[in-house]
Design goal:
The protein is mainly α. It is built from six helices and two strands, in the order αααββααα. Strands 1-2 form a two-stranded antiparallel ribbon.
């Protein structure tokens, strides 16, 4: 039996960081612009990839013209990550195969 749960995977941490950026921008100005995401991504290609991933996963809604906001799923994931970080870690590490590879 494990004493503690693993931290979220690096990929999960990055998704959570982008959701936090969008949440912060939304609280300040009502929506997040592409530039808010670009500041973290540091290049247009990666910013496009992040936006496509977040929209495709149903975590954000919007477009470059009107801005981006968190969807209900995005808000739920962000809340879950704050309240149950260990659960996110358990799911993202265990399901990614990291644990399996360690024991093989």
């Amino acid at each position: 039996m494990r004493d503690s749960q693993p931290p979220p995977s690096k990929s999960a941490e990055r998704v959570i960081q982008y959701l936090e950026i969008i949440e912060k921008a939304t609280s300040e100005k009502g929506f997040a612009k592409r530039y808010d995401i670009f500041k973290k991504a540091m290049n247009n290609a990666y910013a496009s990839y992040v936006i496509k991933y977040l929209k495709g996963s149903g975590l954000v809604k919007g477009d470059d013209e009107e801005g981006y906001i968190l969807s209900k799923s995005g808000r739920d994931l962000l809340d879950l990550s704050r309240k149950r970080r260990g659960l996110i870690g358990l799911l993202t590490r265990e399901l990614s195969g990291d644990k399996i590879r360690r024991y093989l």
